[in-house]
Design goal:
Blueprint: H1 6-17, H2 24-36, H3 40-50, H4 53-65, H5 69-82, H6 86-102, H7 106-119, H8 123-135, H9 139-151, H10 160-167, H11 171-184, H12 189-203
Amino acid sequence: VHRGDPAGAVKLLRSFAAEKNLSRGILLNLADRCEQYGDSVTALELYRRAGSEDARIRAAMLLEGLGRNPEAAKLWNEVFRTSENEMRARQAMERLLDLSAAAGKLPETAAALEQKLKQKPSLRLKTFYAHVLFRANRLDELFHYLDLQEKNGETGLAGLKLSFLLSARRYKEASALLEQKKTAAPEKRAEILRHQVLIAVEASDKTLA
């Protein structure tokens, strides 16, 4: 490439890629180089051979860049289901949300998640389902779901209702929720008051302030 021969560089990379028993690190490096020089076919094959979570993420991003969103979604879904890293699972969830919304398939995604939650509920799936409802603007259904989860003792979704209320600019409801929290947890009164002031400023509501 430094000699102005990217085609020759790609040919050389392909010859390296044809070797067997390459380590995952080398496969990833070769895949990245192939992607950099425009050889997406070889890059995707090398990511597949590497088989690591890093490789799946990079392949999913490449597939999105190529407009092959259904294939990308399959890889993101695999990362979402299997990753032990919550930040990566969250990244995968965000990409799945964007792809589902772009394809106009949020209702189908919600329905699929409802079935999965009946079979094997998990906090990760519940969080995903809540975000799908929000993206689909099914807000009453969303808040009913979150209230029901709280009633059933699910603590992992505790902060979502406030976050969604603020995102939906439902400031009075957000402030009322904080008022409930202030009563339930008086030791957090100062922190909650700061949140209420910020909400009042955001809402330009002197009454709330």
